[in-house]
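Below: protein 1.
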Amino acid sequence: MRSPHSMKKEFLKKWMMGLQVCISSKKKMTLLERKKAIKLSADVAMASSSNGNTCWSRALIVNASKQHKNKVLIERVFGRPEYEKLMKRVPSIQPLKKMIRSKKILKRSCSSLRRVKRNIRGCRKVVNGAYCVAKNMVKKRRKILRSLVPGGEMIVDDVCLIEETLDYILSLRAQVDVLRSVADACEVTK
């Protein structure tokens, strides 16, 4: 894992590049357009600082590249060869969704088979109530975590989900630190 200092430095460099592209594309911007440009360039910079190696960074890039004008920004921040290489890897997300569906079907069929076997035996074991409650809480929290991390819905493995989440949190923390330092620098100049 990279040091936080190098991550912040890389993010700041890419973010400034993204802001320059956004500003040069349109001279007069409303407040809402500026806000969207800042967020978009921050997201693209954060994704590019991880080189598109993580699921969340590829998901951010896919979300940003849905509009044609954003593709120019992404291409400039990443660089043309890196952008093309990344776009070749992004379609690999689609087969993953099919795999998730098939795993869900397999999981459902296995659980229904287990239920049938239990009923055939004729004796139902009393399941510990605390165990069921804990299992449901973990399931709900896992679902919430998947919804918070970009591209988390596509991650099947819990360990991978936690690794992606930790990496995403580190990147967000670097982004917040950089933005806070920029805001502090602006305060000092006033």
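Below: protein 2.
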Amino acid sequence: MLSSMVKEHHAKQSVKKEIQESKRKEACAAASDMTQALVDHLNVGVAQAYLNQKKLDAEAKQLHTSALAFSKQTQQWLTLVESFSSALKELGDVENWAKAIEGDVRTITTALEIVYKGSQDQSSSSSQ
């Protein structure tokens, strides 16, 4: 009787251990599934943030390239405007030079006319 009670007790303990082991395995599997679901959920956000960062980096690189091109073009425009301004100044200088030469030529012409008239007057008075 005692031995049958001990055998019965060991049998019940063995059944309880098997049930406990199976529940432990189920709990571990459920915890693993839950952990995987949480990681997957977090990874979606991280993956989206990573994709957004890649897009931002690409757009920043494109913006930098565009800014460099714009800077280069602006520098070319400034050079062109400075060249144009310099050419206008030279035209103004040439115009002033031409006016000065014209004034000098008129002065010389007037002087030559006066001398010519004076010599004509002397020639006509000496021939009389």
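The chain is about 100% helix and 0% strand.
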